[in-house]
Every structure is written in structure tokens, then in C-alpha cells.
Amino acid sequence: MWFRSEGSLKYYPWGDWWVIMNCCEELLRYYRTGAERQLGMRLQKPKHGAHISVVRGEGEPKNKDRWFYKDGELVSFEYSTALVFGETHVWLPVRSEELVKLRTRLGLTEQPPYGFHLTVGRYT
Predict the structure, then answer these.
(1) What is the spatial distance between Cα 117 and Cα 88, in angstroms, rounded to a whole number?
(2) How distant, in Å, are the alpha carbons of 85, 100, 113, 116 from that of 107?
(3) pTM of the full predicted structure?
(4) Distances (CA, A) of 2 to 72, 79, 90, 96
């Protein structure tokens, strides 16, 4: 099942060039609590809180003149309620045509290296 939400974009134009979308902390807390119950253990909160990595330090973008596109604006996304239990992290899959368009506009591939996702927590 997929639900809609939104988050605000934040650009980091130094170092490795990142763009993250800040999301609802309550959403993250709800799914982390559920994951901890399923696992029977505590999860470490994501270092940067509830967020989706849109551009993950993929180097200087080709289209730097388009950097800051929609900075601070709300962008919609959908997330799956099916928790994914990876080797080191738990996450929710995310999809968003707006994020795909943003990456394409910057001259990047449609998806970041690990796809769009909302990290719920890291195994401790």
C-alpha cells in the first residue's frame, strides 16, 4: 500500500553536493516503533532525522545553474508501508515523479544509487 506525503527540499552545495528532502518526524517515529516491535530490538535514529536523499554526494552536478531548484519548497512523494529489512538499515521505499524530474533537471540519472527511500533506522 502506498501513502502520499510531502517534504521540503534542502540543498548542500559544498563538499559532495547533496540534496535532501526533510520529512515528517512523526512518520519516521511511527514506522521505527513498528520495526522495533517486529525485530525485538531498538534501532538507531537516522543521523539527519526524517529525510529522503535526493542527491547523495554524486559529485558536482552538470547543470549547476539549476542548483537550488525548488529549494525550501514542499515536494510530494509516496511511500510504501512495507518495511524493508536490509543488512544494516530498515527503510520504506519511496517514489516521486517530482524527485525524478529534479534529478533529471540537474543532469543526473533518474534515481540515486540506492533508489529513493526513507530510512527508518539502523541496527544497533
Answers:
(1) 14
(2) 31, 11, 14, 17
(3) 0.91
(4) 25, 5, 17, 11
Residues 46 and 27: their CA atoms lie apart, in Å, by 13
Question: Residue 96 — φ and ψ, nearest 5°?
Answer: -165, 120
Distance CA 81, CA 35 (A): 11
Q: How many residues does this entry show for the chain?
A: 124
What residues of the chain score a pLDDT lower than 50? none
Query: Helix (H, G, I), strand (E, B), or coil: what is residue 69?
Result: coil
pLDDT tens for 7-38 read 999 998 877 889 999 999 999 999 999 999 99
C-alpha cell at 66: 539549476
For residue 11, count CB atoms less than 10 angstroms from its CB and return exposed for 0-12, middle for 13-18, buried for 19 or more: middle
Q: Is 27 left (phi over 0), alpha (psi -120 to 50) or beta?
A: alpha
> Do residues 25 and 4 touch, judged by C-beta distance below 8 A?
no
Sign of the torsion angle spanned by Cα atoms 89, 3, 17, 74: negative
